[in-house]
Amino acid sequence: MRIVKSSLHEACADRIREQINAGVLLPGTRIPERDLCEQFGVSRTPLREALKALAAEGWVELTPHRGACVTRLDRADIENAFEIMAALESLAGRLACERIRDDELAGIRALHQEMCAHYESGELPQYFRCNQRIHEAIIDAARNPELRRLYDSLSGRLQRARYTANLTRQRWSTAVQEHERILEALTARNADRLSRLLAEHLQHKLEAVCEANFVNDTEQDGGVDRTHRYSGSH
């Protein structure tokens, strides 16, 4: 199917994500740039812009003179990153309840409505972008630049894992319900509840990724299962 979207590199990135998730492009395999250009009806420029964006998000790895390959997700790395991200988002939620402005809350509420509309239409890439903007808005509302810096350093590495967590309709529905409760807690400025809900939300994402077999098991960390370690701990 040819792409007719105005933002060609974003549209290409969406299609490549879909192909990776569907198993058309397998972990460790090279991205067939020429074939994808023909398939999408685009030139090399927007495709390569898309690959750069996907590399920043952890979907592909760019190698000089060899092109792009689909990255493999390592279970230990993903668990470590989710553990830290859960702590960061939990803290951000607590701070946001104290510091968020009314206009920022209204913006998050509008993003939530847009996200739900994409859910109803089955538009996962568009849903995911709204979802990410909501999480980033909560981080911003915490008004802690160092927290934002740490969040940004991890966010790109977890983009692919967070996207794949909603590949089943049941998981996707559960995520939307969790976001409803997150918005309610933020609106009520209930710091304890929001902190706990955000930590649980990240735990459920990690569980979904591991259940979907999108990660490679390793011998690191002694084989310890940490998918439940940080639930409700903040």
Describe the structure.
With 234 residues, the protein is mainly alpha-helical. Helix content is 68%, strand content 3%. It is built from nine helices and two strands. It has helices at residues 8-21, 33-40, 44-57, 75-99, 102-121, 124-141, 145-164, 169-187, 191-211, and strands at 60-63, 67-70. It has a two-stranded antiparallel ribbon. It is globular, with a radius of gyration of 18 Å. It starts with 7 loop residues before the first helix and ends in a 23-residue tail after the last helix.
The total strand number stands at 2
- State the CATH architecture of the largest domain: Up-down Bundle
Multimerization status: single chain
Q: Can you count the helices? A: 9
Q: What's the CATH class label of the largest domain?
A: Mainly Alpha
Backbone CA Rg:
18 Å
Mean of the pLDDT scores?
87
Q: How many structurally independent domains?
A: 2
Query: Sheet bearing the most strands, described?
Result: 2 strands, antiparallel
> What would CATH call the homologous superfamily of the largest domain?
GntR ligand-binding domain-like
Estimated share of beta-strand residues: under 5%
Distance between the ends: 46 Å
What overall geometry do the principal axes of the alpha carbons give? globular
Fill in the CATH topology of the largest domain: Four Helix Bundle (Hemerythrin (Met), subunit A)
Q: What helical percentage do the residues reach?
A: 55-70%
Domain HTH gntR-type: 6-73
GO molecular function, one term: DNA binding
Pfam families: FCD, GntR
Organism: Sediminicurvatus halobius
